Amino acid sequence: MNAINETQARSSGSDTVTEGIRIQASAQLLEAESDADALHWRYSYRIVMTNEGPSAARLLSRHWIILDANNQRDEVRGAGVVGQTPRLAPGERHEYMSSCPLRTPWGTMEGSYLFQRDDGTKFEVAIGRFFLVPPKSPAK
């Protein structure tokens, strides 16, 4: 990936910290699973969560808000992420990938995770807005 593409990829992602939990998100178009004629685009997204705080926390659930280019909103709620409820000790990280369908060529995702500390305290961790955008065509 050249420097310009790296910058574009980084600028379409997000990096947020809430209560010592850092959430980094990025996405890319899955061209082989997208069909413009059928108004169907699929994006993969990658999440890296890192516990930068002083105490362990377990991810309990997720809440996604997905907007397409027509401002159509979908919300997704569920337990864990890709079948897991990772526990992050201080300094630990967890990474996963998943995918999201859209009815337009571009959109956005944002949301939150619900975490719980070992003492039972629950708290919401923000997932900053990131963009689901197709790669730029090379200049001709």
Kindly list the characteristics that best describe this protein:
140 residues; 56% strand; mainly beta; elongated; Immunoglobulin-like; five-stranded antiparallel beta sheet
Outline the secondary-structure elements.
Layout: H1 3-11, E1 14-18, E2 21-29, E3 41-51, E4 57-68, E5 73-79, E6 87-88, E7 93-102, E8 107-117, E9 122-132
Antiparallel strand pairs: 1-2, 2-3, 3-7, 4-5, 4-6, 4-8, 8-9
Q: What would you say this structure looks like, in words?
A:
The protein has 140 residues and is mostly beta strands. The chain has a single domain, classed as ApaG domain (Immunoglobulin-like, Sandwich). Helix content is 6%, strand content 56%. The chain has 1 helix and 9 strands. Strands 4, 5, 6, 8 and 9 form a 5-stranded antiparallel β-sheet that branches. The N terminus is likely disordered.
Q: Major sheet, described briefly?
A: 5 strands, antiparallel
Q: How far do the termini sit from each other?
A: 18 Å
Which whole number gives the mean pLDDT? 90
Number of domains: 1
Q: Work out the helicity level.
A: under 10%
Which residue ranges are poorly predicted, with pLDDT under 50 across at least 5 consecutive positions? 1-10
Structural classification? mainly beta
| Separate helix tally | 1
CATH topology: Immunoglobulin-like
- Structural Rg: 16 Å
What's the SSE pattern? HEEEEEEEEE
The top level CATH class name? Mainly Beta
β-strand percent reads over 45%
Overall outline:
elongated
- The CATH level-2 architecture is identified as Sandwich
CATH superfamily: ApaG domain
Count of extended strands: 9
